[in-house]
Amino acid sequence: MNQTTVQFYPDAQKSLIALTDTLLVSVAARTKKPFYLSLSGGETARLLFELWHTRYNDPKRWKNVRFFWVDERCVPPSHPESNFGLAEKTFFKPVGINPEQIYRIRGEAAPEEEAERYSRLIAEMLPDREGVPRFDCTLLGIGEDEHVASIFDNDTTLLQSDDLYAPSQHPVTGQYRITQTGEVILASREILIALVGERKKELLYRLVTRKEQTITPATYILSHTSRATIFTEIELNSPNLSLQ
């Protein structure tokens, strides 16, 4: 089984700084072609975008990056739950990112049609890895219920779907979303994950100590890639651990 490295830092801010520095090293190494980055939403993304706004706010740092999304809620961009709206408000506009670098999922569109459109978009733009478009880096979140992207336990078929993006539905709220599927996530050259805050402590402990072969979206992704790194301030009695 593959390994996922867990890196520990003194606090959440330093964890997010370390993740960002890792990302920007990869961005800086790409000099002749665009760097394709896939963003997540949620509260951790908010903290990350606010950090980028205050500490990494020179648009020249980001000029070679093309911004895409791991998933999006099926709401208009003005809605407070829009992942694009969050990034636009807290990072893109304050820093002055060129709109031509940004490729949002249209959450206000019909889910099936938009999933197909966005799939075609990345298939046309991104390099190919064994038939799957390949992002240079995916910033992935893990929910407390161990969902990744908008792949929940109620539809784990999306982990191995032939679709690139597909509609999904939150099992509790019933909200429709559009999500990257498992094969696209796993094709990414690099997967960077921030697990910060007290609410993520039990989650990280479960992921690190679990012995049984329970399949959840998170355990599936982490066990099928050797390119993921988790950044956290949640100390689990070891400075460096691996999920195996």
Strand portion, in percent? 15-25%
Mean pLDDT: 92
Low-pLDDT regions:
none
As laid out across the biggest beta sheet, the strand order is: 3-2-7-10-11-1-12
The class by helix and strand makeup works out as alpha/beta
The largest pleated sheet is described as:
7 strands, mixed
Helical region count? 7
Topology (elements, then pairings):
Layout lengths: L3 E5 L3 H18 L5 E5 L3 H13 L9 E5 L1 E3 L9 H13 L15 H15 L2 E2 L2 E2 L3 E4 L24 E5 L6 E5 L1 H6 L3 E5 L5 H9 L7 H7 L4 E5 L7 E4 L1
Parallel strand pairs: 1-11, 2-3, 2-7, 7-10, 10-11
Antiparallel strand pairs: 1-12, 4-9, 5-6, 8-9
Helix pairs in contact: 1-2, 2-3
What does this structure look like?
This protein has 244 residues and is an alpha/beta fold. Helix content is 33%, strand content 20%. The strands form three sheets. The chain has a seven-stranded mixed sheet with strand order 3-2-7-10-11-1-12, with helices on both faces. Strand 8 and strand 9 form a beta hairpin. Helix 1 packs across helix 2 and helix 2 runs parallel beside helix 3. It starts with a strand and ends with a strand. The model has no long low-confidence stretch (mean pLDDT 92).
